[in-house]
Structures are given as C-alpha cells and as structure tokens.
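Hi W.,

Here's what went into the run:
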Amino acid sequence: MQGNQAMTEGAIYAGARFYAGYPITPSSEVAEICSRVMPKIGGIYLQMEDEIASIAAVVGASLAGAKAFTATSGPGFSLMQENLGLAVMGEVPCVVINVQRSGPSTGLATKPAQSDIMQLRWGRHGDQMVIALCPATVRECFELAVRAFNLAEKFRIPVILAPDEIVGHMRENFAVPEPGELEVIDRRGPSGPVDRYRPFAADGDGIAPLAAYGGDYVFHVTSSMHGPDGYSNNDPANAAWRVEQLHRKIERHLDEIVMTRRYDTDDMDVLLVTVGATTRSGRAAALEARRRGIKAGVLQLLTVWPFPDREVAALAERVRSVIVPEMNYSGQIAGEVQRVLGGGTDIRKVNSYNGQIITPQDILKAIVADSPCGPI
Amino acid sequence: MSHATGEKYLKNGVLPHMWCSGCGVGVMLGALVRAFEELDYRNSDIVVVTGIGCTGKADDYLTTNALHATHGRALPHATGIKAFNPRLQVVVLMGDGDSVTIGGNHFIHAARRNIDVTAIVVNNFNYGMTGGQVSGTTPGDSLTSTTAWGNPERDIDICALAEVAGANYVARETTFHGWELKEHIKEAMIKRGFSLVEVFSPCPTHFGRNNAMAEPREMLDWLKEKGLPRERYEQLNAEEKRGHFVIGKLVDRDAPDFNTRYEEIRARATKG
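Here's what came out:
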C-alpha cells in the first residue's frame, strides 16, 4: 500500500465521512481515493474551487457533525492558513494532510522536502497552536491518520498530518488493522439543558463539548474573539483568557499528544533526531555506525508540534553529540533541538534542499566526523 | 393574522444594533427574521453563515445557529455545512466585498455547483466597515476614500453573474422595498439550489457622503426612484435605462441542486 492511500484509509477507519480538496501533487491520490470511496460509505467528496474553499468546507462540515479532512501540499497549504486560523479560533476539529514538497513557491513540485516544519507551527497569523504529526512508514501513515482524528476530535483543534513526499508515495506492506483494533475517539457532545449550552465554556481540561448544527443544541461559532457563549466579546480579560485557553488545552495534555519512537537509545554516544523519511536513513546510518564501533541511536519525532522538548532533552543529556538530519536548508528541526538543549550543546546539522533524500551515507559521514577517533 | 416580527430569532439585550443611521443592513436583517417566522423555521433548523464587514456583523444579533467566518469565504463554509447535512436551512449573509470582490471565485462556484443555500448580498457599493474604500460594485467614476478622483474601474452586476454561473433563483431588491425583500427571501429559501437575493442598500456614512447623498433619505430616494420592475424598465429607451436598475425576481429555474445530484452519484457508486 502507498503512504497516501494508507493515510486515506486511516482517516476512513477513524470515521472520516467528509473530504473537500483541490488536487495538487504529491497529495492527489488522497482526493482520488476519497472520490471513489466516500459515495459508497455515506460520505461526501467535494472538489472545491481552491484550497481556501477546501478547508472552509471542511470547517463547515465539521460543525455540522462530520469527521472531515482535506489533503494538499506546499502551495495549497499556504492558501489554507487563514481558514485554519478560524478552525483554531472556533475550536473546530479537522485534519489537514500536507504532503511536503520542495519549495519555495512552485519549487520542485514532485520532489520531497521537510521544509514546512515551521509553517506547520507558525503559518497562521495570531498567537495560536496546532498539532502536527510526521509519519516515516506506510504503517505510521495509517496509524497517525487515526491518531490525528482522535486528537482533533478530543482537543477541538486542527491536526496536520505532514509526511514528506517520499513517505506519501512510498509503498510498503502492512496488515491493515481490523475494526476495533485501534482506538477511535469521537468528539464529546453537550449533555445539559439545551438553553444552557455554552460551546466555548472550557472546563478544567480546557475543552468545551461541541454540538453539531442541526441537533437540539443551537450554537454560535465566530472567527472573532468570543466569550463562552460563542458571541463576539471585546473584553480584554476575556481575550487574554481565550488566548491562554487555546494554548493551555494542548500544554496540559502533552503526555497524550507528544509521540516519539526510540531506536537503539539505551546505550549511545551519538543521538540522531529525525522526522519522516529521514528517520529511515538515520536508522540505517546508526546501525552501520554501531557496526563500526560508534554507539548511535535515533529519536524519531512522530509529533513534531507541540515539539517534544522533554523527550529530546532527556536523551540528549546522555550523549556526546546530537545530529539532526532534515530536508531543508535552514535546519528547522535543528533550531528547535538547539532551543531545547541551550547554547552549551553543539548540534551537527545534515541538510538536503535539492529535492533529493538524505542518504544513510550522508548521515554516517556526520556521525563518523563527530567520533573522537575521527574518520574510520 | 398578526404581522411577523421575527423576534424569536433575535438576541435579547443587544439592540440597538451597531450599524450607522441610515444603513440598510438592519432592514435586511428585519426582513430575514420575518421571513424565518413566516416560514415557521425553528432556530435549530437554520444556520446563518456570515463573512466579514458591515453585513458580516449580522450574526451578532441572531439566536439561530451561526458561523461568522472569514472575509470572502462564507460560501465555501456554507457549502460544507449544507453538503453534509442537507436538512439544514443555510443562509449566507455577505456584502459586496465578501460576495463578488474578495470572494468572487467562491460565488461563481457555489452557483455553478448549485448548492442549496440562500445567499443574501447587501450591496452598498463600497467597503463601509474599513472606511468607505472602492469595491467591485462601486460604479465607475464614483468617489470613495481610495478613488478620490473617481473610480477608474467598472462595477460588476452581481445578479447577472449569478445567472450565468447557474443559480436557480435570483432576485434584486432595495432596502426601500422591505416587504418585497422579505417575500423574495422566502422564495429564495424555499427554492432548491443556489439562490441569490441582492439588496441595494444605502451607506450614507461613506458612499453617500462622498457622492452627494449624505442624508440617509437621499440615498433611499435614489434607490426608490432608480429601481424599477422589469416591465417598466424595458419600456425605457437606452438613454433612460442608464442609471436605472431592475428590481424583483430575475431568474427562477429548477436545475437539480448539488445534494440531489450527489445522491444519484451515491446510487451509481453503490450499484457497482
């Protein structure tokens, strides 16, 4: 199965019944599969006029009760930012697949990159937070798609599933989970008296129950700053509380949201911090390094936002050197790792930004160069 | 029979509204809630989707379901709502900026897709909320805060655009014609498929002040005199037609709406 197909099937497994999108390489397989499957399972496929409309339709459908998603790549993901901001502000659960391709602009339209890492986090104006996940295998494409919906529905937040093009187009065998095998979370609806429902009255967890248009609970959602009742509210104290709440609901649940995988990290001198396809090269490089007597391990970030600060810090303090291979020029992940570790620790960056994968050899060179014995 | 007031769709304690004296958005809102009442809709049956601008503030006063979306994007949000739950009555309130300037592409495609929503466009010929700048419906040569020596561009005919794009129902009224406006909103809401009701509206604060109609009454008089039913308009010669416009129902047809067509696709897909 292909990565893009696995994400689509994972979404459907999670209960997605609404897809709206605009075709763009290298994500179009998701749209094509949805166009065939959705009509058969009582779902809706809508090909919208652009990506702005696609995410808008997803937000609308979600408020009408759908588990809804879209898929795109760089240029389309840029167009979605404004309405993604509305989904953050209106706390509308939804999933956006962004199959990362090489930029800037139209760039190398068919080639992979991991250069949207900062855009995933900061693409929208205003102070806000989303969740972003990066799979490295076809199985992870499926599992993280399910997880993306679970997190979106539970925390009333957009979740961005962001494989690089390599993972999106990679084909691997895996056993598709049976129904019931993976946890599927549905959003919590209101239960009290109809006239008392307040769609933005977050409780201690920072999350209010969400009704669906057309049910008994009538409710108001706005892109403007709003009070607990969902109506516009310009009060400074309310605005501050709201901005804090939009962050707090994530910050208080990092244990549930932040996912990483460790490979050979029990005894290591060199730590590789990786996301997406680079994880695969990193693992191969670490194994080869061990064969040559250098103890290397890999920390894969499945959740890239919120950034796994604690996980990175816990492993980095046990090693001699930290290497961050990533498919961008500026070291977007390396910068975050540096932030976590502070100025004292040197990080070696391995970057590719020519649309080509980082090979195990590229990473191995960096591992060996950092070894006290020098090149072997 | 008593007259509909639409009160049960209006939020308690928020009136008077925020619109300027002489503005027409409140007249549209009044016609809308009376239409809801006369159609006997429940608040929970209705979703009002608004854009950004003076008209986009209308949801603040409503007790129906509502989504106050982003500038120009009310229609695609409404499309997602209606496509997923066809039982809902979806009304989209926009200004001339939302509908055919920043949001023009969505307007064309919502009409082409024939999604069963009712779009109500309050056209006041300029951007009122931001201080009276030129919009896509500002007539040529008009003065605005960004066309101090006259507008070099032409205005777009929203109703004609909806017609060629495939809308099932198109009507134009002015805020002088409140009763007719309410009746056309009702027809539009009953009609399956994409419906447009354009409402010519005064903006004395900006457009009127800049174009020698600063008194609210002057702009209302202008709308009253220049808006003619089609039969009277057609009697004018070409010279006289300039400066006048047609009001009333302009398009009424029954092409299948998106959800009806999609049900056919579902039937085909499940058959094999």
